[in-house]
Amino acid sequence: MKLLWVLGFMGMVLYRTDGFADVNGTKEEDLHYTESNVYGYGPNGYGVFSRPLMVGLTLINGAAATGAVCLDGTLPGYHIHRGYGSGANSWLIQLEGGGWCDTIRNCVYRKKTRRGSSAYMEKQIPFAGILSNKAGENPDFYNWNRVKVRYCDGASFGGDSQNEAAQLYFRGQRIWEAAMADLMSKGMRYANQALLSGCSAGGVATVLHCDEFRAMFRGTTRVKCLSDAGLFLDAIDVSGRRTLRNMFRRVVSLQGAHKSLPWSCTNRLNPTLCFFPQHLIASVKTPLFLVNAAYDTWQIQASLASPTADPNGLWHECTKNHARCAAWQMNFLQGFRNQMLKAVSGFSRASKNGLFINSCFAHCQTERQDTWFSQDSPHIGNKGIAKSVGNWYFNRVNIKAIDCPYPCDKSCHNLVFR
């Protein structure tokens, strides 16, 4: 399989133009973009888009002085495309996703990839979806200053520790601070509008850092946050255990992430639980919008029915293609959707917050052009994701969109895996 471009998704998933994928693991989020993603071809061939803007990598040269380095000690970086016109003083920051590393062995492996070292990062990446520079593909944010902050720490920009024996630097919190300081020095301090976003592990980071982001700006600046596919649930898996809680516990412990977790959560809950956005979202003071698939494919594959939780492979076909799920398996997944809706019930009551939870088998819908904004993009009622986010951000409409249960939504771009 020929790989063209790389952005983020958990599970080392390789998409092809026929919409199928190969899954080579579940712990590291790693979407290798081919034409199907860059140009917006969805699982059923949705839409054809113009070639995306390619944006170069900028290393943060002053980061090493504060210890803000990737797992292997290299400099962190980001990709930036400057805004213009009405968007010249508006800033969109997107935090890259890419799973987590929860053991020394995993992190040593990770530091030899672009998820742990800038030495392996692409020199250019495509800006599509919410990062697109075309009004017809990204109507509300196309002419903003748009930034993709690369992810190379393995703890959702949250760790602050190191392991000298393994030569590992767990400096996610410092990378976050260094990136924001560098961008502030390049004009972000004068922003009249700012949006912090992120997908998957980057969606977790968005929730963790949302109020910190707000505190960087003047009181007159409109600041909001958008978490895409970041609502990871502390759910019981098909074996009756909690696979994801165990992994998050190891991440928090190994990387010293407890130091960076919001006190509003850690003063009442165990730090591991405070790595789950479901326990954080209600206390985030800054307006926050959640985009999430009710049947999140990564959570199904790596949390609910991982190979460890399903050693006999009873869920193997179901996790690859929802059409192969038996009735009892769909009942289990409907229970997961109910848990997600319960988790956002308090959050949704605040008028400042927004929701778009569609009943799709998907993961990360703001980065792909076909799911973000296209003629056939997913919708709830008469609103798609891009329009819903824009209406919420600009206070045009109060958005609390929750889809009816599967299989009612025919607009989904469901992911199917090989």
UniProtKB/TrEMBL annotation:
Which segments does the entry list as coiled coil?
Answer: none
One GO cellular component term of this record is:
plant-type cell wall
User: What top-level branch of life does the organism fall under?
Assistant: Eukaryota
Location of this chain's protein in the cell: Secreted, Cell wall
Sorted UniProt keywords = Cell wall, Cell wall biogenesis/degradation, Hydrolase, Secreted, Signal
InterPro entries given in the database record:
PAE/NOTUM (IPR004963)
One Pfam family it belongs to: PAE
Residues spanning the signal sequence: 1-19
Which is an annotated GO molecular function term of this record?
pectin acetylesterase activity
Coarsely, its chief localization is: secreted
Provide a GO biological process annotation.
cell wall organization
Q: What is its EC number?
A: 3.1.1.-
Enzyme class label? hydrolase
* Assigned protein family: Belongs to the pectinacetylesterase family.
Q: What does this protein do?
A: Hydrolyzes acetyl esters in homogalacturonan regions of pectin. In type I primary cell wall, galacturonic acid residues of pectin can be acetylated at the O-2 and O-3 positions. Decreasing the degree of acetylation of pectin gels in vitro alters their physical properties.
Protein name per its UniProtKB record: Pectin acetylesterase
